[in-house]
Amino acid sequence: MHPTEDDLILHYYGEAGVSSGGRSEAGIDAHLASCGDCRDAFQALGRVMEAIDAAPVPEPGPAFERTVWARLQPALEPRPDPVRFSRLAGVFGGNRENLTGSGLGRALVFAGGLAAVVAGVLVWQLSMAVTRSAADAVADAEAHRERVLLTAVSDHIEQSELVLVELANAETHDGGLDVSLERSTADDLVSAGRLYRETARHTGDLQVAALLDELELVLVEIARGPDALSAEQLQGLRDQIDGQELIFKLRVLAADVRARQQSERSSPGTSKRTL
Amino acid sequence: MSQMREDAAAVALARDGDSEAFRSLVERHSRLVFRVAYRMTGNEADAEDVVQNTFLRAYQQLGRFESRANFGTWVYRIAVNCAIDYMRARPKRESAEEDDVLERAAGGTGQPGAEQLVLAGEIGARVQAALSRLSDMERAAFVMRHYQGFSIEEIGRSLGLKTNATKHSIFRAVRKMRLALEPFVES
User: Which residue of A has its CA nearest to B117?
Assistant: First the structure.
């Protein structure tokens, strides 16, 4: 039997027979050696692929790396220092070890961190307002708070998506799968997600709040589950993720949030109705 | 020290807040990230924005990078996802704009001659126009497989697709690319 066009494409990439019952690399090679028509078809495919390879990409100028860094550096916030954060948790609860070890502790630390960032931004805005009118300063402070929240929500969505994609594509080994990392990330995300959901409700962004609700159900499932999932448990989780089309919805929301961020950057204050 | 080891060391320092270490990662990988981004978006300005978004997201997710992994591979995956998000967020371009690319490449004539077609720039423009007609998912899967050499399994993991869905995205992409390019390549 002649290989199909799909077989030839996989053969071109050296992946024939991988993860499927399709023809193997050696099987196709043997067929091509004896069948002129298929050999011609494979060579025609190769010519197109070579043309695609040859398509040039413009080379950025010699200062490209410096320019990228110069634009990037102001956007990089200092990475959170775990020691400083656990001290902060100690201040909140008195018992540092217990508090940072629990979901509640992380929620408090996160809420404290977020509040500190927002408060810092507001203080900075207030100091700038000395030379401007009060109305301008309030509008600016709102726009800035908007940007801070959009960045935080965008990061939350990305991290949630990453956890779901990992689980949707993971394979069990010896009948089980270690999901301790995903579990702990999901635990953190549940706490943060609740804050964002409440913010979304307050700002009237009910679609976002509804999606964060759906997401929370799955994240709680992961966070409260065991460190190692059986194949059946993993399948159950995947069915839940697929059934709600969560990954797709998160990607759409991420794109929407990014569009709002861009719109905020170009015309501050225009996306006030949202998060 | 190999680049992979240098990258792993730089990631460890950057996680602790060393911005110079992160800068070295940006300097080592930004050109290759630009190439991925250009293949995905089809123009330089958008590709530059995607490069920015990619490194910003990489910085935010440094904690999730596994030290045994290859930073380059990891950041290219992020680049593809950033490009998908970027293209979904930007307004749809008129298809006439894509035709303009071909017109310019063909020197303004509707039916370019065989001599002109051997010019790499023209083939490049046709490839880019054909890429721009693929769906976001087809383009992402094709760029990762064809230009970046990711396996089908890795592509599926990165894009949140099952293996069969990944294969079909690649098959559809190759068929569309063949349809658009074969007449010119064969002539």
Answer: A51
